[in-house]
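Backbone Fold Data
Goal — fold tokens
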Amino acid sequence: MLSILIPTYYYDASRLVADLHRQALDADIDFEILLLLNASDAQSLENHRHLETLKGVKLLELPTIAARSVSRNFLAGQAKYDYLLFMDCDCQTVDNLFIERYLPYCQGDNVVVCGGTAYKKQNPPAKSYYLRWAYGVKTEEKSAETRNLKPNAQFSTFNFLITKKLFLSIRFNELLKNYGHEDTIFGLELQERGVAIRHIDNPLYHLGIDANKVYLQKTRQGVQNLKILLEKYPNHQELIDNIRLLRYYNFLEKTYTTFFFFCFYSFFKHLMLFNFNSRYPSLTLFNLYKLGYLCGLKYQKQELTDE
């Protein structure tokens, strides 16, 4: 029936696993929960070891830090059931019906269902964490109706169900070693195969909000991954058509203004960073920041930083 797959990176997922285990028992289904401890230290192992007493829960370990794509591919290879439910470790169920809402879709072939992402609004985080929270609330928290307008472009690895056979026929692209856009390329691969993604309103709360500095570092890694994809992905135009940042970059390339935009980025970068660390971060500036960073990668071989 259902394999629930959760990769962890130094994050205590004990409460999440216990909640999912209880919901799966209540649903009276055959299931397993595979928790991957990715290069975890002794404390992380200790935090999760008690979960092995729960029927159907299994801890897996990798000795070194593996990329997000590698971790998910590894988990899928270990799963024993026909339907795979992937989720990030830093999340929380919204209610007691999370597992139950997915069960009607556990039938047939070529099933891909995304549940969505939600953020708690009652207590916004401290200013030093506000950028990631604001970005999530304004761009990631979307209804199923909105996501279904462009279903493949809205694919997210945060919370999704897929048939094991279909997943193993595609797998996540392990060319991407750092954070970002493995979900983008997976959604496009599904689109090329004619597999339609179904979006439903079954979100998980995203709890692991990165500090601004960490999130900006991950953002730069994501832009680097985009550059790799732009150079090596065979369907170059499909990437541009589906990713707004690449559409803007392609326009700058065609109008020979890439260098001028990079100069603009370099001049105003520190003012942008000041805004990102405020209580009122501008997502328009954030998009310009990403575009300027992408332009800069064309002119500097080494990774650009904000140091």
